Amino acid sequence: MSENLARQFLLREDVVFLNHGSFGACPRPVFETYQRWQRELEAQPVEFLGRELTETMRVPRIALAAELGTTQENIVGLTNATLGLNIVAQSLDLKPGDQILTTDHEYSALEKTWAYVARRTGAEIVVVDIPLPLTSESQFTKAIIGGMTERTRVLFLSHITSPTALLFPIENAIAEARKRGIWSVIDGAHTPGHIPLALDELGADFYAGNCHKWMMTPKGSAFLHTRPSVQGMINPLVVSHGWTEHSKEPGAKGAFGNSPFIDELEMQGTRDPSAWLTVPAAIDFRRANGWSDVQAHCQALAQDTAHRLAQMTGLTPLSSAAFCAPQMVAMPIPDCDVDQLKLDLIERYNIEIPVFRWKDTCICRLSVQGYNSKPQMDLLIGALSELLDLKGAAAPRAASQG
């Protein structure tokens, strides 16, 4: 399976790429679709961007909405999840003394976003520590609800965490926030194409996700999902052709005939929308290659590799398998110079994988995608065994993308 799929990707064959979670990797057929859109744009830019773009942008919204359990009126195409979350964070009407409740597992760029918002508005950031290892939904929900107060206005959570690769069971926390009148803002950067999503059923007020990670579109393809009742709260970061002065009036239309939510965010000056337009092709690629079976295989490889390393290190995993991202696992390793270890892995073994320190824990974060293989997992285990002076692993041997 992995050998055939590896040939459908553009990754260098001399690099063992175990870092899909950072920026993704685009399959060759989807990338070719991307290039076709770019050529069409350049063949007649005025027609493409000036006369056809509104209808062209609607097609991926419809396709993606069907995958995400929503309707195309509730999502808007953007370049990345960080942009979507910035739009939300800077649209909320926060005042001095309001609290933004979040966890100690969030992505650093969004920590900075909320710090900026807090500085500008006078709101306070409250960080809840999630007990580890994470082994139950009630353990998570109790920690979140325990951090809520009468001053909590925003609940900001990752669905799948970036540093710790945990799958947070966010449903009950979102429901409790709704009961208390707290806006729920979800960072779903790692979720589309990684886990099944039913966004309308989930009920979060705002949910941003990337398509260029696990859905495997080219870079620069993402979405913001917003419940209809709060779409009027959203303001664009850039005011451009999609804005109208009457956009906040009941029943208002945007400048291009969609809702103000869509037109104000999608029509913001000249940009190349080709990555967003490949969303249907990426969905078709996954279906044609039986991606549910591919994902099951990848999950098994990821969990087996994490288990092997844990046996060697004696370190406790960050969660039970149920609360680990299916195709991504943050593996604790003994205390070390994480920058040097990362450099040694790429320079000595051609292994591209993130190694970093989170709080007091050194982590090697493994991503397993359809182009990866068991020999690559063996190479990683052997390399870590040698570099960290661990016992009980076979000597490392070469492996390629196949």
From TrEMBL:
InterPro entries: Aminotrans_V_dom, PyrdxlP-dep_Trfase, PyrdxlP-dep_Trfase_major, PyrdxlP-dep_Trfase_small. GO terms for molecular function: transaminase activity. Pfam families: Aminotran_5. Signal peptide: none annotated. Keywords: Aminotransferase, Pyridoxal phosphate, Transferase. It comes from the Bacteria. Transmembrane segments: none annotated. Residues 27-354 form the Aminotransferase class V domain. This is Aminotransferase class V-fold PLP-dependent enzyme. The lineage of its organism: Bacteria, Pseudomonadati, Pseudomonadota, Alphaproteobacteria, Hyphomicrobiales.
